[in-house]
């Protein structure tokens, strides 16, 4: 009896790992996040129970309830797949779930997934690093914009690409803090909504415009010189390949 923490990747099922697809095909139960694409869920064993524990604003399942559910399922089924968007350990609380399972004596394993932090920007033709534009990349959650200590002011580095997950609702505070920290108002910004799905939409702007952009979650915010790049003309759209 094992619970597998499986990364569902950033969107389309074509971006799953081979091991993830194999586990879904033999799963007894699949416990999945709200934003996992339907094409991924369709790979699950036809006899598997699908349990949605998605966290939506105003109506969500608490993490403690999810932990207890996984422990219970792991004690009663041979193969339980906990399917999490992107990679289970990039702001996915995979570590918390694994600790809960291990403390309960339930066997568990991890199957990494393609994180949206890097693949999401690439869906818009944006590399998060570039030898002449960016010396590195920082990935953070937008929830930190609510901190009173002005966390984003300390991230204002023109030499680093900033990738923000779950930041759309706080984009105004994020932009303000980065500008206060010294980042130029003209710094390029890109917002990629629903990356690697048929609903994908890209919006390009500058940092001073970020707070008023007409964008919605789920989305990835990219800030820095690399956000001005668009390499789509040299990328193959794998979604068009059958």
Radius of gyration, in Å, reads 19 Å
CATH class of the largest domain: Alpha Beta
Shape estimate: elongated
Sheet having the most strands: 5 strands, parallel
Regions with pLDDT < 50 over 5+ consecutive residues?
Answer: 238-242
> Can you give the mean pLDDT?
91
What is the level-2 CATH architecture name of the largest domain? Answer: 2-Layer Sandwich
Give me the strand/helix succession.
Answer: EHEHEEEHEHEHEEHEEE
Number of domains: 2
Instruction: State the strand order across the main sheet.
Output: 3-2-6-1-7
CATH superfamily of the largest domain: Tetrapyrrole methylase, C-terminal domain
Please describe the topology of this protein.
Layout: E1 2-7, H1 18-26, E2 29-32, H2 38-41, E3 49-52, E4 55-56, E5 59-60, H3 63-74, E6 79-84, H4 94-103, E7 107-111, H5 116-123, E8 136-141, E9 160-165, H6 171-180, E10 188-193, E11 201-206, E12 219-223
Parallel strand pairs: 1-6, 1-7, 2-3, 2-6, 8-9
Antiparallel strand pairs: 4-5, 9-12, 10-11, 10-12
Helix pairs in contact: 3-4
Account of the protein in words:
By secondary structure, this protein is α/β, with parallel strands linked by helices. The chain has 2 domains: 2-111, Tetrapyrrole methylase, N-terminal domain (Cobalt-precorrin-4 Transmethylase, domain 1, 3-Layer(aba) Sandwich); 116-233, Tetrapyrrole methylase, C-terminal domain (Methyltransferase, Cobalt-precorrin-4 Transmethylase, Domain 2, 2-Layer Sandwich), CATH 3.30.950. The protein has helices at 18-26, 38-41, 63-74, 94-103, 116-123, 171-180, and strands at residues 2-7, 29-32, 49-52, 55-56, 59-60, 79-84, 107-111, 136-141, 160-165, 188-193, 201-206, 219-223. The strands form 3 sheets. Strands 3-2-6-1-7 form a 5-stranded parallel β-sheet, with helices on both faces. Helix 3 (63-74) crosses helix 4 (94-103). Residues 238-242 have low confidence and may be disordered.
